[in-house]
Design brief:
The protein is 22% helix and 30% strand. It contains three helices and eight strands. The strands form two sheets. Strands 1-2-3-6-7 form a five-stranded antiparallel beta sheet, with helices on both faces. A three-stranded antiparallel beta sheet has the order 4-5-8. The relative contact order is 0.19.
Length: 160
C-alpha cells in the first residue's frame, strides 16, 4: 500500500467524467487500498479515484471510524430531505464552505468483489456519498458553496 498524491483544484483531471470499472484486477485492488491509506493519512472521510489522478468510478468512504465503504460505479437511486452544513475537500486544501445536500441518500454500487449492493446513508454519510459521487462527474463542492469559502487552516491547527 502507498499514499498517493492528492490532486488539487486547478488540476484538469478533477473536471473530467470518470470511466466505469469493468473488472476487478490487482491494480484496481491496490488502488482501493491506496485510496483508503491516502484518505486516512489526510484525515479525510471520503476519497474519489480522480483525486489521486485515476479516472475510474471508484469511491472510498469511512465516516464512522472503521466502517469502510467501497463504491464502484455508484449510481444514486434516490435522495430525500435537506441539510446545510460545512463541507471541505482534500482537493481544496485549507478551505470549507456551507453546502446544502440531501439528508438521506440511497446508492447502488459494486463492492471490491464486484458484487452489487445498495447503501443508504443519512446526514454525514449522505453528504459524503453525494460529495464523492460528484467527483466522478467532474464536479467540485466549491460550485455548490453558499456564500464565501472560509479558511480552515486556523481551525485545523487546534485539532489532533
Amino acid at each position: 500500500m502507498a499514499i498517493r498524491q492528492v490532486r488539487t483544484i486547478g488540476d484538469e483531471i478533477l473536471t473530467k467524467e470518470c470511466k466505469p470499472v469493468k473488472e476487478m484486477n490487482d491494480r484496481t485492488r491496490e488502488l482501493i487500498e491506496d485510496m483508503f491509506e491516502t484518505m486516512y493519512e489526510s484525515n479525510g472521510c471520503g476519497l474519489a479515484a480522480p483525486q489521486v489522478g485515476i479516472r475510474k468510478r471508484i469511491v472510498v468512504i469511512d465516516v464512522d471510524d472503521g466502517n469502510q465503504y467501497v463504491l464502484i460505479n455508484p449510481e444514486i437511486l434516490e435522495t430525500e430531505g435537506s441539510q446545510t452544513g460545512m463541507e471541505g475537500c482534500l482537493s481544496v486544501p485549507g478551505k470549507s464552505g456551507q453546502v446544502t445536500r440531501a439528508s438521506h441518500v440511497k446508492v447502488k454500487a459494486l463492492n471490491e468483489n464486484m458484487e452489487e449492493y445498495v447503501l443508504e446513508g443519512d446526514d454525514l454519510l449522505a453528504r459524503c456519498i453525494l460529495h464523492e459521487c460528484d467527483h466522478l462527474d467532474g464536479k467540485l463542492y466549491v460550485d455548490l458553496v453558499e456564500g464565501e469559502l472560509c479558511d480552515t487552516a486556523a481551525e485545523e491547527e487546534g485539532e489532533e
